[in-house]
Structures are given as C-alpha cells and as structure tokens.
Amino acid sequence: MVQCFWSCPHLCTCYEHADLVDCHARGFEQVPRGLPHGTWLLELGGNNLSKIGTRAFTGLWSLRVLVLCNSHIHLLPPQAFFSLSFLEKLDLSWNQLTSLPVDFSASLSAVRELRLEHNNLCYISANSLEYLDNVEKLDLSYNQLVSIGPGVFRGLSRLRQLYLHNNRLTVVQQGSLDMLPGLEVLQLSQNNISQIDSEALGPLYSLAVLSLVGNNLHHLKFKTFISLHTTATHIQLSGNPWSCDCELHRVFSKILHVRHLHIDDYQNVTCQDPPQLTGASLAWVDSQLCVAETATVLVITITVMVTVVAALVMAERNRKRNRGKNWDTESQTQTQSPPS
C-alpha cells in the first residue's frame, strides 16, 4: 500500500488504504501516467481529455470504477479500455461523444453500470454493446438517437434498467428490444415516438415500468400492450397529442381492464383533437365520445334502413303497377283478335 501511495501521479490525490485515486478537475489533457496498479476507483471527471488514447488504462487490472464524466471527450479509439476486464462501473456522461467504436465493449464484460447520458450520440452500431454480458443499468438519455435498430441490445441479457428518454426516437421497432428478458424499467419519455410496432414490447417478460410520457402518440393499438406477458406493468402515457375518439376510448378501456396492466397517469391523458376537446381529459370525455358516436351511428343506420325500406316499397309498387299494365295489354290484345 505504501508503494501505491508513493507512485501517485502529480496533481492527483491517492488514498492508500482505500485504493482511490482522485484526479478530478486537475486540468489533465490525457490520462495521467504512473497510476498505481492497485487502483480500485479512478476519478478523472472534470478534465479536458478530449480524446482517450488507445490502451490508456493498461495495467489497471484492479480497477472497478472509472469516472470520466464532463471531460470534453469527443472520441474513443479502438481498444480504449483494454485490460479493464474487472471494471464494474463506467461513467462517460456529460461528454461530446457522437459515436462508439465497434469494439467499445470488448474489454467491458464485467461492467454492471454504464452511463452515457448527455452526449451527442446519434447512432449505435449493432456490435458496440454486444459484450456487456453483465450490465444491469444502461443510461443513454439526453443524446441525439433517432432510431434503435434490431440487435443493438442483443448481448445485454442481464439488463434491468434502460434509459432512453430525451432523445429523438420516432418509432419503437419490432426486434429492437429482443433478448432483454430481465428488463424491468424502460424509460422512453420525451422523444418523438409516434408509432410502436405491435410486437415490439412482447419480449419484455419482466417489464415493470414503461414511460412514454411526452411523445407524439396520437393513437394506440390494444395489441401493442396485450403482448406484454408480465406479472404487473405500470405504464405512463400523459403528455401526448391524443386524437380522442371512441376507438381510442375502447383501447384505453381494454387496457384498464387487463389485470397486469396499469396506466398510472390515466387522469392526465388529454386530448389534442378534435379541436373542441383540446386539453380535455380522456377520462372525463370518454363516455360522451362513445355516446355521441353511438348516436351518430344509430341515426345513420336508421336513415339507411328507412331508405332501403322505402326503396323496397317503391320497387314493389312499380312491380305491381307494371304487372297491372301488362295484364291490361294482354286483355286488350285478346279482345281485338278475330275469332278463328
């Protein structure tokens, strides 16, 4: 432990008994050299690293927690985290990353928590996260993600919490959430989601919380949520521009009557369309919607029936009239014919 203390890099503070190295906000432009090999936690946040060098952490086999937040990092080269096979938490939040290298997770198979929120990520390749076998919490919120393609999360079988709020997602695609059997929390609020594929949520057998607050949803399909075969799932749907009609009311009513599905904020689900219902709660107007729609359908049905009956009556009258004319014509013909 004494050796660890005396090998502490200049400007850093090393706590020998806890194996902690604090290099926070010390003006570093690259990962400092001479870090003690027994370091358990390395705090490098608040620096000006810009770019992490290849194999910058070689030899730190004991490292369990690495904090690199708010360090102006905009590029991660291949093998940036080489040798960190026992790392459990990696914090890369509040940086300027626009992409992740294909081999990003190759040396991070032991990571349980990965924080990438508040970056500029607009795309994640299907291979960047595949080796995160033990990750339980993944935070990708406050980025620029437009879509999540099928297979992006395919290696994350132990993932329990996935945060994707405050991105630019427009669709929840079928296949994008496959192979996440342990996922409990899915945060998708404050995106631009207008469509959820019918089978997209089906693979989430453990989902307990699903937030879709503040998106661009106008309609819903009951099939989308009935595909959730969970014990209990709490769903949040307020803050969307709902087009309120009787069909939407039916969908929500069905969801509310499914024992394992719970809409926590149903009272805050408000209408944007039609204009006369803008701002009104769907829970307040739902019965009126269906009564009005039922009355309209009934009026139309009665009108159609009356029209059909009237047409049938007129057709029958015309048929009788024509038959009478034909009978008179035949009678006159027989009267005028000379006897044989």
Principal-axis shape: elongated
Q: What would the average pLDDT be, to the nearest integer?
A: 88
The share of residues in helices is 10-25%
End-to-end gap: 141 Å
Uncertain residue ranges = 1-5, 294-299
Largest sheet composition: 12 strands, mixed
- Figure out the total of helices: 4
String of helices and strands: HEEEEEEEEEEEEHEEHEEH
| Integer-rounded radius of gyration | 34 Å
**Arrangement of strands in the largest sheet:** 1-2-3-4-5-6-7-8-10-12-13-15
Derived structural class: alpha/beta
Could you give the count of β-strands?
A: 16
* Beta-strand content: 5-15%
Structure report:
The protein is of the alpha/beta class and 340 residues long. It is built from 4 helices and 16 strands. The strands form 3 sheets. Strands 1-2-3-4-5-6-7-8-10-12-13-15 form a 12-stranded mixed beta sheet, with no helix packed on it. A hairpin with a 4-residue loop joins strand 1 and strand 2. The chain starts with a helix and ends with a helix.
Question: Care to give the gist of this entry?
Answer:
22% of the residues lie in helices and 14% in strands. It has helices at residues 2-6, 222-226, 246-256, 282-336, and strands at 13-15, 20-22, 41-43, 65-67, 89-91, 113-115, 137-139, 161-163, 171-172, 185-187, 195-196, 209-211, 233-236, 242-243, 261-263, 271-273.
